[in-house]
Specification:
By secondary structure, the chain is α+β, with helices and mostly antiparallel strands. Helix content is about 20%, strand content about 25%. It contains two helices and six strands; from the N terminus they run E-H-E-E-H-E-E-E. The strands form two sheets. It has a four-stranded antiparallel beta sheet, with helices on one face. Strand 4 and strand 5 form a beta hairpin. The longest helix is centred in the middle third of the chain and has 11 residues.
Length: about 100
């Protein structure tokens, strides 16, 4: 499992986030998703730690804490939802010969 970290500064780096979480245990991996068009950090990330106890300690200590001028939102990451096909889904107007008059 991993920890979701939201409301991050756009200036955050993987190294800086790693350093904050390392105070609560061993950090296995840090991910900072970036915007496809701008390449800028999207304002949230994920941290994977060595054990559930370390994750829980980090969540308890850091949720709501101010860091880099922002109030952090830290909790257990939820599994990624399956959003279906690459084009979304559902009926979008008159495509596929549906809803013709």
């Amino acid at each position: 499992m991993s920890v979701y970290v939201g409301n991050l500064s756009y200036e955050v780096t993987e190294d800086s986030l790693n350093a904050v979480f390392a105070e609560y245990g061993s950090v296995k991996r840090v991910q900072l998703p970036t915007d496809r068009e701008t390449g800028r950090v999207r304002g949230f990330g994920f941290v994977e730690m060595g054990s559930d106890a370390e994750e829980n300690a980090a969540i308890e200590a850091l949720d709501g804490a101010e860091w880099m001028g922002r109030g952090l939102k830290v909790n257990k990451a939820k599994p990624k939802e399956d959003r279906g096909g690459s084009f979304g889904g559902g009926n979008r107007g008159n495509y596929g010969g549906r809803n013709r008059y």
